[in-house]
Predict the structure.
Amino acid sequence: MTKKNIAAVDVSGKRVFVRVDFNVPIESGAITDDRRIRAALPTIKSITDRGGKAVLASHLGRPEGNGFEADFSLAPTAKRLGELLGKPVVFPSNDCIDAASDAAVAAMKNGDVLLLENVRFHKAEKKGDPAFAAKLAHGADVYCNDAFGTCHRPEASMVAVAKSLGTKPKVAGFLVEKEIKYLAGVLALPAKPFVVVLGGAKVSDKMACIDNLLPKADHILIGGAMAYTFIKALGKGVGSSRVESDRIADAKKTLELAAKLKCQLHLPVDHVCNTEFSEHGDIEVFEEIKDGYMGLDIGPKTQTNFALLIGKAKTVVWNGPMGVFEMSPFAVGTKSIARAMVDATKKGATTIVGGGDSAAAVEQMRLAEGFSHVSTGGGASLEMLEGKKFESVDVLDNA
């Protein structure tokens, strides 16, 4: 999966179509987390510093696809990007393929940055439509994919635009290159011991990931609500904790396979519980959950056990929180995993946080700088951990 990157291309005087991922949270017109915008800066600056013209495209949210919707406009991201770059970013129109956008792209000077409006204002984007992609390309000389968060989706701006350029250069941005290096490269031959930490609400979301990593991992640590399907599969009581009844048989098979492969699959031995899904109420710690209680975080013994295993690891991959970290009484387990991984990084381990809620948690804790890599893609990182291939990456030029 070694792909040519943007630094390998002469961009002077050329239009570079850069698919970025500016799908950021916006409340009342204000961006509440600009991490994905900041992550794109090295690629954008590489283009403009070398005299290229950066034409950026992204989606935001899930508009209907019938034209402009103010709530999903990329205008706030253009403003924030301009602040981060220290220069104006052209935002020409409320349509990414209209005459105004064409004219603005044609008028660009070397070093300019332009952001097109939300590509998902057109249904053709999600359909991967080649005709839409040809218009969206705006006569680009180079295609650059720096939108890892959308790499698992074969949408027009991710695949068809690149194909529309024919033999012109099609390269990875620095962010996509880094994501591939960690999520595919490191996992191809992980340094041992290799520890995988998985959490989140649903075991069904992570089963393919577990199956792919079982032959490679030495230890898989399971927390979050997904743990209770496995605990139920062992015939133990889980009170009123969330269980996916239709996946109990799958959980049993996974436990059996782990034993055959000599991968140790670790489940919580104690639980922080409540009688209601709330940070108030009757909060207790149990080794076996009583009736009427639900598990909402891993308990102190589990936190210690998991931290000890992480501390001995050479490679750690984490995807999914250990509990309902949005509620402070049930955030301790997730924090303990984050801190153990930061300590492991200091000892020389490669530590990877696989996007989504885990990335949000470490950002919230202000610990993101303490890991080897924090992925910008939730769904994309999970699919890469599952071993899936991405057409949006395959279409890029090999190094």
Notes: Residues 6-175 form a domain with the Rossmann fold fold (CATH 3.40.50.1260). The chain has a mean pLDDT of 95.
